[in-house]
């Protein structure tokens, strides 16, 4: 039997401990109430982790973005958020040493290219500035999957336990960005397994004992594969 | 509104067999639309309503953006096949008014400051209508908004009361609405007894109004419990 975290809806009373009230809650008349539909996490502060939601960019977050527009001297980047982000030309040309001719920005990054970037600044006007990470370009034989950003911590697990297991058992390169986009690279069948497991984690993020269940799933999947191989069945 | 010739109350029961303070059967399903950020299917007797929520998302046109908060948009729309006589499709005076009233009924609970410059779209489609569609729409929209992960203070529940054959009754159906003396849709935050919308069509005395309000408050509590159960159960059955 899977144990559940406590599910709350907006307006549900959670606690009287106002000092520990955290994200996803609001305080009224000395009591803490849920502000979102999700599960309660009371580990250190009282939080409500929503089931779904829109990613709100914060300074320092590492995200996966897709170039949507080139508007000299910026690339406009979709970061799976209500706000579009922008990436300045100088990010590519290593601080202006190289000159990018007007109209040649697409030779560096073109529309629909995927990049790994860090949010360097946000302001009250909701302008989001990005800086490129090393190995920023994603492409080739990888695969992009998207989950609700609220479930990213579950994919990573406590001190990275879940993601470490995934990488090892699925034999894939997996990169999880803060905005809920995940880049997987590996052999076709390994990627299939990895995306299936990641979606399973996202769907069951509100249940506990998830790491063990995922481990069991991966082990049984692998042993099934080996048995099929021994019988000479096609994979 | 008043027309003679139809007896709406027989032996202390209404035409569909309900008592004066009885709701029609309610059915709520959460997350029925895969591509929407949040959705809800709501049945109130013969009313069938579907609500879809998209957003917060980038707002267009830009000049309508609010630099401090998200903008809530609400569209109430009746399907041409939702009523006996085909309804001409598209917005009309009535649906524009209902959209505005419903939006204002939901606005007090939505915490819009978290997503400045964005819009939250609520689409309410009436698939089948049998009086009380605006209240069904508000109930559905409120659940769909929660399902979309929108920050909210509470849910909104809504119901209509009215007067038929001189009696104050809860949740009028189409016949009662057409031949009754008054109809009063009410939306409220059930747990706080805070009214967020109230309209009245027809005439009631002050006593009748207060009696109706009391009926509506009780019914909203019941509806709230059903809304809550539908949301909680969605993630409990796995």
- Average of per-residue pLDDT values of chain B: 95
Structural class by secondary-structure content of chain A: alpha+beta
Largest interface: A-B, 32 and 32 residues
Q: Which geometry of chain A do the CA atoms define? A: flat
Question: What letter string, H or E per element, gives the SSE order of chain B?
Answer: EEEEEEHEHEEHEEEH
Distance between the amino and carboxyl termini of chain A:
32 Å
Q: Segments of chain B where pLDDT lies below 50 for 5+ residues?
A: none
Q: Quaternary arrangement of the chains shown?
A: heterodimer
CATH level 1 name of the largest domain in chain A: Alpha Beta
The helix tally of chain A amounts to 4
% residues in beta strands of chain B? 25-35%
Mean pLDDT of chain A: 89
Give the DSSP E fraction of chain A (strand runs of 2 or more residues). 25-35%
Tell how many strands the DSSP assignment of chain A holds.
14
- Provide the CATH architecture of chain B: 2-Layer Sandwich
Helix tally of chain B equals 4
- What is the CATH homologous superfamily assignment of the largest domain in chain A? K Homology domain, type 1
Write up this protein:
With 235 residues, chain A is of the alpha+beta class. Chain A folds into three domains: 7-50, OB fold (Dihydrolipoamide Acetyltransferase, E2P) (Beta Barrel); 62-138, OB fold (Dihydrolipoamide Acetyltransferase, E2P); 143-228, K Homology domain, type 1 (Ribosomal Protein S8, Chain: A, domain 1). Chain A has four helices and 14 strands. The longest helix of chain A is centred in the last third of the chain and has 21 residues, at 210-230. The relative contact order of chain A is 0.13. Chain B has 238 residues and is of the alpha+beta class. Chain B has one domain (18-233): 2-Layer Sandwich (Ribosomal Protein S5, domain 2), CATH 3.30.230.70. Helices cover 27% and strands 31% of the residues of chain B. Chain B contains four helices and twelve strands, in the order E-E-E-E-E-E-H-E-H-E-E-H-E-E-E-H. Chain B has helices spanning 93-106, 133-147, 174-179, 206-234; strands at 9-10, 13-14, 26-30, 38-44, 47-58, 71-78, 118-128, 157-164, 167-170, 182-189, 194-198, 201-202. Chain B has a five-stranded mixed β-sheet. In chain B, strands 8, 9, 10, 11 and 12 form a five-stranded antiparallel β-sheet that branches. In chain B, a hairpin with a 7-residue loop joins strand 3 and strand 4 (38-44). The A-B interface holds A 2, 4, 7, 9-11, 24, 26, 33, 35-39, 50-54, 56, 82-84, 124-126, 148, 150, 203-204, 206-207 and B 37-38, 55-58, 67, 109, 111, 114-118, 146-155, 189, 191, 228, 231-232, 235-236, 238.
């Amino acid at each position: 039997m899977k144990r559940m975290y406590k599910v709350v809806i907006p307006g549900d009373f959670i606690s009287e401990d106002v000092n520990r009230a955290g994200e996803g809650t609001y305080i009224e008349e000395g009591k803490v109430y849920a502000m979102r539909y999700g599960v309660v996490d009371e580990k250190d502060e009282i939080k409500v982790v929503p089931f779904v939601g829109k990613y709100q960019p914060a300074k320092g977050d590492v995200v996966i973005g897709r170039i949507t527009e080139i508007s000299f001297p910026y690339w406009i980047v979709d970061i799976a958020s209500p706000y579009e982000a922008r990436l300045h030309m100088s990010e590519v040309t290593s601080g202006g040493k190289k000159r990018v001719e007007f109209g040649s920005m697409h030779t560096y990054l073109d529309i629909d290219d995927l990049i790994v970037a860090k949010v360097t600044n946000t302001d009250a006007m909701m302008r989001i500035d990005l800086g490129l990470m090393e190995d920023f370009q994603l492409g080739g034989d990888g695969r992009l999957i998207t989950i609700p950003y609220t479930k990213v911590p579950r994919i990573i697990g406590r001190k990275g336990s879940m993601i470490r297991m995934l990488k090892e058992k699925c034999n894939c390169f997996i990169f999880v960005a803060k905005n809920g986009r995940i880049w997987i690279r590996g052999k076709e069948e390994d990627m299939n397994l990895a995306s299936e497991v990641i979606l399973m984690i996202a769907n069951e993020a509100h249940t506990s004992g998830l790491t063990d269940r995922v481990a069991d799933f991966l082990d049984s999947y692998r042993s099934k594969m080996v048995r099929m191989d021994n019988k000479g069945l096609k994979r | 509104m008043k027309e003679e010739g139809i007896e709406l109350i027989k032996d202390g029961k209404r035409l569909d067999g309900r008592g004066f303070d009885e709701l029609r059967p309610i059915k709520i399903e959460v997350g029925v639309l895969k591509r929407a950020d949040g959705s809800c299917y709501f049945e109130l007797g013969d009313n069938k309503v579907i609500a879809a929520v998209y957003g917060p998302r980038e707002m267009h046109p830009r000049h309508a953006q609010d630099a401090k908060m998200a903008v809530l948009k609400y569209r109430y729309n009746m399907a041409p096949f939702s009523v006996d006589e085909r309804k001409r499709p598209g917005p009309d005076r009535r649906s524009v008014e209902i959209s505005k009233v419903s939006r204002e009924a939901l606005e007090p609970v939505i915490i819009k400051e978290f997503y400045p410059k964005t819009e939250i779209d609520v689409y309410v489609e009436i698939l089948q209508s049998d009086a009380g569609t605006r209240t069904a729409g508000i109930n559905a929209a409120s659940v769909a908004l929660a399902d979309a992960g929108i920050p909210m203070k509470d849910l909104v529940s809504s119901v209509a009361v009215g007067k038929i054959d001189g009696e104050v009754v809860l949740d009028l159906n189409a016949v009662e609405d057409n031949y009754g003396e008054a109809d009063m849709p009410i939306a409220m935050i059930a747990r706080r007894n805070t009214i967020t919308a109230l309209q009245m069509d027809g005439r009631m005395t002050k006593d009748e109004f207060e009696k109706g309000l009391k009926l509506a408050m009780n019914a909203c509590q019941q509806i709230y419990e059903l809304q809550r159960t539908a949301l909680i159960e969605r993630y409990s059955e796995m």
